[in-house]
């Protein structure tokens, strides 16, 4: 005979209500939590969210829309989500929109037809009409990484302006005045903020902004090769380049290798997102580090909160701090020691 919640409660010496609260993702006393978990393990108790869903009209599933499943940023964010949703017994349906708005719109319709309990989206553009449709249906939705203008929606993002500012500031403090940037599409809020951080740093250090040093690229796999070519073919080319996302950083590494250009000697290079690959280079790469796992966890926690009917502080815009790693990929052009 299969063990029941009643059996778990009896073995753990707690009430059935306490076990139910634990299974449904609500906080219980730490002492009770440990006893319940031990009882579940000993009894080999299996919680069936689908059966519960028949009673509550819930599917205990959530939809996650990302621009690219191969993007290291996306996979790290999803890992954080999975860890949190597992805790609340939610399954995830992951949809790859391939960086296309029309795919994103279709996938939203697909997930709504599947009657998921909530959706997390990393938008591919500044268009939010289809997201308003989700909200109007009463289904909770949380955006990650990118805000959408004129849309009131819960969002978990990083502090893109200050992340970019700190990167450029550190390049400047090593004596560079000719700093190029691989900026992202300006219909993506994240890309706009990172370009703003670049401009603000140059302005604060009284460095004239050379518009030819600002080149744009898509934020997708393999993007940015032509942008690097444009910067390096300038008659008065930059001594340092700042790439503003993972994909364009990876393209930069490939471009410099193909051209026989030595990072840290022939060109100074500052990228985005910390990965093992970037730190295995010689020299290791200077990067802006985003708390990718934390983004996923926070988005999942917020969505669970909304799915449970708690709409306090809506719309909640949470900005997570970035950090930077500075290495010899930025050549020091001045003799004085950098503090």
UniProtKB/TrEMBL annotation:
- Per the record, the coiled-coil ranges are none
Superkingdom to which the source organism belongs: Bacteria
Q: Is Disulfide bond there in the keyword field?
A: no
Pfam family, any one: Peripla_BP_1
What Gene Ontology terms describe what this protein does at the molecular function level? DNA-binding transcription factor activity; transcription cis-regulatory region binding
Q: Which Gene3D superfamilies match?
A: 3.40.50.2300, lambda repressor-like DNA-binding domains
Keywords carried by this UniProt record: DNA-binding, Repressor, Transcription, Transcription regulation
Residue span(s) of domain HTH lacI-type: 3-56
Keyword DNA-binding belongs to the record: yes
Q: Which InterPro entries match?
A: HTH_LacI, Lambda_DNA-bd_dom_sf, Peripla_BP/Lac1_sug-bd_dom, Peripla_BP_I
- Name of this chain's protein: Transcriptional regulator, LacI family
């Amino acid at each position: 005979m299969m063990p029941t919640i009643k059996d778990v409660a009896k073995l753990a010496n707690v009430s059935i209500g306490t076990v139910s609260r634990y299974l449904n993702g609500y906080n219980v006393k730490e002492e009770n939590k440990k006893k319940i978990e031990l009882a579940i393990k000993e009894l080999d108790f299996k919680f069936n969210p689908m059966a519960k869903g028949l009673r509550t009209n819930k599917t205990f599933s959530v939809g996650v829309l990302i621009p690219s499943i191969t993007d290291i940023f996306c996979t790290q964010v999803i890992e954080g989500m999975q860890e949190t949703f597992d805790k609340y017994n939610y399954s995830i349906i992951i949809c790859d929109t391939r960086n296309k708005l029309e795919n994103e719109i279709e996938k939203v319709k697909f997930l709504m037809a599947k009657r998921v309990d909530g959706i997390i989206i990393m938008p591919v553009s500044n268009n939010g009409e289809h997201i308003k449709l989700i909200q109007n249906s009463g289904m909770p939705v949380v955006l990650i990484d990118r805000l959408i203008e004129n849309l009131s929606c819960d969002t978990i993002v990083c502090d893109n302006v200050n992340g970019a500012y700190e990167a450029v500031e550190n390049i400047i403090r090593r004596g560079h005045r000719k700093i190029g940037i691989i900026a992202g599409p300006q219909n993506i809020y994240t890309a706009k903020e990172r370009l703003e951080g670049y401009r603000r740093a140059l302005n604060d250090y009284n460095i004239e902004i050379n518009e030819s040093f600002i080149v744009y690229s898509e934020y997708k796999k393999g993007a940015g090769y032509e942008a690097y070519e444009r910067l390096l073919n300038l008659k008065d080319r930059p001594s340092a380049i700042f790439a503003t996302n993972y994909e364009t950083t990876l393209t930069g590494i490939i471009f410099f290798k193909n051209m026989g250009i030595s990072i840290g000697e022939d060109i100074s290079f500052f990228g985005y997102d910390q990965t093992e690959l970037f730190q295995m280079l010689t020299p290791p790469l200077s990067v802006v580090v985003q708390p990718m796992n934390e983004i996923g966890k926070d988005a999942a926690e917020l969505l669970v909160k909304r799915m449970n009917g708690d709409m306090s502080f809506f719309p909640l815009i949470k900005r997570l701090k970035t950090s930077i790693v500075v290495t010899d990929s930025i050549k020091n052009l001045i003799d004085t020691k950098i503090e």
